[in-house]
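Section: Multi-chain targets

For targets with more than one molecule, the full set of components is provided together so that the structure can be written out for the assembly as a whole rather than chain by chain. Components appear in the order listed by the source. The example entry contains three components.
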Amino acid sequence: MQWQVLRMEVMMKSRKLLWIVAGTAIILFALLNVFRKGEAETPRAAVAGSVAIDSAKCIASAAFMRANHMQVLYEWRNSSVRTGNRVHIASNGSKFEKSLNTCLGCHSNNRLFCFNCHSYANVKPKCWNCHLSPMETP
Amino acid sequence: MMNEERREFIKKTALGVLVGLGTVSGIVPAFSLEKTVLPLWDEKPVPGKIRWGMLIDTRKCKEGCQQCAAACHHAHNVPDFRNKKDEIKWIWQNPYQKVFPTASQQFVSKEIQDRSFLALCNHCVDSPCTKACPTEATFKRWDGIVAMDYHRCIGCRFCMAACPYGSRSFNWQDPRTAIHDPVTTYPTREQGVVEKCNFCSDRLVKGQQPACTEACPEQALTFGDLNDPRSDIRQLLETNETMQRKPELGTKPSVFYII
Amino acid sequence: MIEKALKGNRSYWIWIAFLISVIGIGLSAYNQQRWFGLTVTGMGRDISWGLYIAQFTFLVGVAASAVMVVLPYYLHHQKEFAKTVIIGEFMAVSATLMSMLFILADMGRPDRLLNIMLYPSPHAMVFWDLLVLSGYLAMNMVSSWAMLGAERKGVPPKAWVKPLIYLSIPWAFSVHTVTAFLYAGMPGRHLWLTAVLPPRFLASAFAAGTALLILVSFILKRTTGFDTGKEARAKLAVLATYAGVANIFFLGTEFFTAFYSNVPTHKESLQYLFFGLEGHYQFVPLMWFSLISGVASIIVLLVPALRKSTPWLVGACSALVLSIWIDKGVGLILGGFVPSPLQEIVEYTPTATEIYVTLGIWAIGILLLTVLLKVVVAVKMEKEQ
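Its structure, encoded as tokens over all components, is:
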């Protein structure tokens, strides 16, 4: 059962998984930094085998999202659940549904998209206790 | 404060957005997340304009048919612990005397005694549960739906004590272990929060009917806007004799029954 | 001043060690509950509150012990209570702390406790209850500690202490009233939906709190030799008696309205508790035991000769506390859920985990009380010498 496996792995904080994730994160972070020149050049999902993520399809620049995605998600969560305002209007007028699924529409192709950084930064957001994480999607 | 943050966020947004949701799901076809039909939810909600309601024609409800409950519980990842103590249910069947305990119980016809009656959250106008909630985790939405904000629920179970219809369930344990056929279109819940029927607000934004209404093979359920005199539900309410559950408590349920 | 709690004889330390080990058992049981969820308790979909909320309700009542001595001492200058006042206040402190811990133990997501303050909802009685309880806790702790400190130094207390004590008197009444409002405002729970609930909460609180205070003063006399005085206990016994009488009277009016009016919804819960409903008799023996011991203890307390005899007084006070514990804790909370909104009768038995957590919280409260009273006795004995 997928759920039970995930509960075992993710919720029971299996040490093994943590080490793998943390190790991957550190290696990735190192790789990203080696080839990095300046702030302006944002690293595009450098995971092998995944479809390259074009920031043009995202709601904001990668640099902005990297720093502020938690505030964005918090605002989306409150306004869509509580006031019923489910439409995010970007500065150029494009509309997005305020939903984690909007993000995952692109980012789910990298199964460790959220987990790499979060385990590196040692933050434990609780989103995936209920929402489906990229790891759990088919 | 929120608006300021949002303004700032928009200001900071350097790169615009070129591709909408349709394109996104086209690029990643394997990933079939919910697709929202934009025009249906493009308007900002006006509080009080809509009051969603449901009319259940119990005469059409066939004995042994569980399709509405099955569809609802599947669509919302409702766990099935297979024990009564930890049970979680959003919509279920019960006999007449359990659903209408304060209605007349004497000399009820055998046919009615044998019939099944659906019970679900009544989405009351004056809902005791939202009044009792100390964090506004359960609240009255702009469209009459009594909604749950699972992010905020502290699990004090005051709403369960306050609900006179037994419509609320608590996650006594981790629900993910008991979801046998999960769907990707709706989140699960967490251990320690209360949940209940959401009148399919997740499907309404996509312009769909509630899962139970859609699943009923007999079209026994009618869903619609009680504030719109021309809606199907209002037409049926005007031409039929209907009942609400425990109307004497003054909660003004939005679920009606034709007996 | 707290250092006085660090000096004690052998039996004092054995007692402390015992309490700490009970707390340890409670914590490990709570850890289990946090991990596996509240499914480890006897609660379920139909009886969604159990032992924890029952203990909370009872302990809010015990917190009344303070006002029953503070009011006569400070407002009516009843000098007999001079030594008892601080004991009553510290009992209120630990009872309030325990009741708040029981709320915490009952929550599905205690990590989100602060949401009550982050999203204040004046329409919810829990919000008000948290305010009055934490206010009462702080008020009693601060004022009694300040009074004790002043007494130790032999100086008059600071000017702000008295007004705080005066404020704690109406505040105590609000604590019981708001706690009763938690239950009394819910449509469809007909055992609770009664205007007599707040007065009954006050009466049972004044009876149980005072009776427990008498018992604690006997225990102190026995274990430390510190005597709060026969006169104080005699007066407290009178107060407990009349509060107990009022409590039984309110219960009687409840019975009359339910059974004379014959309205089924009003009647069913009481019938379930005292006579059984549709073949379910789970609480019938317990409720009759509570009723009989309550009435018997009041009869004993009403007779002056018996009231003055220590064994009778101890027996009657213990029976009164036990009676109210059953009636207000077990009966009132669990009875409120039967029959369920869907007219079902579900039985409830607390699990071992639930009982360990409960004992652990009681041990925390008793530990705090022990330490506080140790300081009190040390200061007072020092002064007497």
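Residues 2-12 of chain B form the longest helix (11 residues).
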